[in-house]
Amino acid sequence: MSRNSRRITFHGGAEVSLAHESVADPGEGEVLVATRLVGLCGTDLHAVQGDHPFIDLPYSPGHEAVGIVDAVGEGVEGVAVGDRVVIEPNLYCGTCANCLAGAYNICDELIVFGCQSPGGMSDYFLIDASRLHAIPANLPDAYAALIEPLATPAHAVAKAEVSEGTKVAVLGAGTIGVLVALVSKARGARQVVITDTDPMKRERALRLGIDVALSPAEFSQQTADAPDFDVVLDCVANAPSSAQAVGAVRKGGTMIVVGVPAESLMFPLHLVQDRELRVLGTLMYTKDDFEWAMEFLAGRPAGLDDLITSYYGLEEAGAALAAALSGAEGKVVVTPDAVLSAGA
């Protein structure tokens, strides 16, 4: 039996609309999920401001979705009605060279649920069962909401080959930047330095156990004469941050572009050549990164749930977007249900 559902659409800026729709029963291999909560992320903020090169407006958001299985189609295995699940939103072809090599995050035909196809900011949504991961019963919603955001840093840090003894800098102390820094520490980095223009974000990073937090100006002064970082991960991805990242990497080191640049940038290529640097992009994640994120969060790291600073109902999605755009919030979450507590 079909379900009545509300769906949110972002039109650009702070313009948001809510529509009513009927969601069909799941077909073969599909799962009907009742949304429990959806996170807003930097991708959404870039998109509504027209700064995301791969998302067209309007779009229906919700790639950071946690829900409960409401119904399953024929042939579905691995999840059952009543299971709490998180979506892995990369929808891939399975037949291109990258998919066959296991790198489906860079599928030639990649579509992202909640970016290029309607997402989970709704009461119900349908998705292929292969895109769902069951959430451990002992993992509260506030931590489950961080599985998808944490998988991106897990992939980036693995790509950077951070290991015991690596000296790491992370540019940008938003949610993703802080998680990149925490993953770097979990992978054994001997020192992690994070930068941000916002002193409150720097203070939050220090509370979560990051070794050093600096302003971009302080970081530039520190690295101007002695670039000694093995790895710099740029979560800002604009012209000043990319130049700063390259300038801070030691000879033979690695720079990872984590953030999404809004446009082409002037880049200090002469330093890349002269210092024989590796400059790599990173996109999303694969199953291994998702599973690493779930295992890490299962340990309930202290303070991580505090990254979520506010919850809004589905019909308050406009207010949620405005709050996220203000820059004064951490992670903003939208839920069709009543406001959830961190321990829910």
TrEMBL record:
Q: Which Pfam families match?
A: ADH_N (PF08240), ADH_zinc_N (PF00107)
InterPro entries with a match to the protein in the record: ADH-like_C, ADH-like_N, ADH_Zn_CS, ER, GroES-like_sf, NAD(P)-bd_dom_sf, Zn_alcohol_dh
Concerning PROSITE patterns, the annotation shows:
ADH_ZINC
Q: Keyword Zinc, does the record have it?
A: yes
Membrane-spanning parts:
none
Keyword Ribonucleoprotein in annotation = no
Q: Per the entry, which co-factors are needed? A: Zn(2+)
Any idea which GO molecular function terms this record carries?
oxidoreductase activity; zinc ion binding
Record key words, sorted: Metal-binding, Oxidoreductase, Zinc
Q: Which domain of life is it from?
A: Bacteria
Annotated ranges, domain Enoyl reductase (ER)? 13-334
UniProt record similarity statement: Belongs to the zinc-containing alcohol dehydrogenase family.
Supply the name of the protein.
Alcohol dehydrogenase
Question: Which species is this record about?
Answer: Brachybacterium vulturis
